[in-house]
Amino acid sequence: MLKLPESLQSFGIEEAVKTDLYIDGAWRAGAAAKRIDVLDPSTGKSIATVADATVEDGIAAVKAAHDALPAWAAMAPRQRGEILRKCWELMIARSEMFARLISLENGKALPDARGEVAYAAEFFRWFSEEAVRLNGDFSTAPSGNNKILVTQQPIGVAVLITPWNFPAAMATRKIAPALAAGCSVVLKPATETPLTAFAMAALMAEAGVPKGVVNVVTTSSAGALVSAMLHDPRVRKLSFTGSTQVGRTLLKEAADQVINCSMELGGNAPFVVFDDADLGKALDGAMLAKMRNGGEACTAANRFYVQSGIAERFSRGLAERMGKMQVGAGYDEAVACGPLINQKAVDRIADLVKDAVAKGATVLTGGAPSGGDGFYFPPTVLTGVTGDAEMVRDEIFGPIAPISIFETIDEAVALSNDSEYGLIAYVYTEDLKKGLQVAERFEAGMVGLNRGLVSDPAAPFGGVKQSGLGREGAHHGILEFCETKYIAVSW
Ligand code: NAP
């Protein structure tokens, strides 16, 4: 039973959402009597409880995926593609329901939630097309003695672990390529946002995904459950999106069975603005890069480096725009910035702001939580942020924009690369040559050049350094779920 706010009662959420584990095509309460509370971050109140999977439930999901694997892998790629395309159609047809559901459990503002639904659904469509384009290779050995035939085969049962900040898109970015490649999966969504994952499981069943091919388990014991799955020899793939800290732990866990790993981890994106940037465009880009999802995105601009000649105008402009954003319940149509995910995030960000101010920063707008119900923090802009402030060393994951000034290109590049992370970097300049040169020098898997938003299912998404391993989306995404097989042939 869901406890929906009145404004959300006519969107079909109640009918779409199940709250039990989805294993082998059936909804199961799970072995544990205990259930997990799901909160509405806009009010801090419980909206539902979901089943709490035990290790046995997790292993049952692995067994179901393993049993379903041979038939799914053998299905004609076109047929798998058609099922994925049906998933896209159904998700688009229900986009308002999904947007409101995402907003309800995650807190993001409706325009962001709508953007996420379109992005999430597109992975189904993109990989429905990739399913029939999984090409191999063929050549003659240099010796002339044999032919070299190379094929791509599904890697097997995949465990997928997703974060709360994009409850739909982080799941489809993994499920769609896995299914397109012929793999079966067990998805463990974040405990804060399980409802969207369950609604998608129901949608995929309706679209024709056979039982056991997609399983979804929620748990309050992620460590124990995932460890057990990664030590089950039937599991051959781990695809994880989340923090670098948890990613490191899981890489160690996966080492015991030498499980193939894809890791989409944390970021600390620099946003560089040169004097010759178009101020209006740079501010538009900064708002997108900083405030999409209220700053709770791995791609969020985390550190603004602005050249001295434009710094004051840029800082004033950003403070004005961020200060005007209406903060409130994400599912309220008028709201531009929803709450953070939980109280811990609010407290953490308040501490980061205090630390930056103690080290010399000035608050231009925002600065402290307003209190009351819900997990709110106002959009905040700080100038004069020093290099030792914690918020420039670490991922902020909230609506805070720290600005520092630089003078030269070399200084901008050095500051940008001074991080253990390397997911994405942004640069604004009207000089394309300079922009491309700087883009090449960034230690990052992705660059936004005069762009505040880069995510695209047709483009390879991923980071370097401690931001991850592998790529999602594009053609690269399906290859993460394939094993390359070489057959030496003579005739
Ligand atoms: P998180 O704490 O690392 O959690 C991510 C997922 O891992 C959740 O499902 C979580 O389950 C699970 N988990 C936690 N501890 C685990 C353990 N010991 N063993 C197995 N699973 C475990 O990250 P988050 O707070 O949800 O998400 C924010 C982070 O994700 C940020 O660092 C952000 O940059 C990153 N992110 C990266 C990308 C990318 O594409 N690079 C995209 C989005 C987000 P519980 O919910 O039950 O704890």
Q: Quick one: overall form?
A: globular
Q: How many domains, in number, for the residues?
A: 2
- What oligomeric assembly is this protein in? single chain
Radius of gyration: 23 Å
Give the spatial strand order of the biggest sheet.
Answer: 14-15-16-13-12-18-19
Cα end-to-end separation: 64 Å
Q: Provide the list of bound ligands, each named once.
A: NADP nicotinamide-adenine-dinucleotide phosphate
Q: What is the CATH C-level name of the largest domain?
A: Alpha Beta
Number of separate strands: 22
CATH architecture of the largest domain: 3-Layer(aba) Sandwich
Alpha plus pi helix count: 16
CATH superfamily of the largest domain: Aldehyde Dehydrogenase, Chain A, domain 1
Average per-residue pLDDT, rounded, comes to: 98
SS content category: alpha/beta
Portion in beta strands? 15-25%
How is the main sheet built? Answer: 7 strands, mixed
Give the uncertain stretches in residue-range form: none
According to CATH, what is the topology of the largest domain? Answer: Aldehyde Dehydrogenase, Chain A, domain 1
Helix content: 25-40%
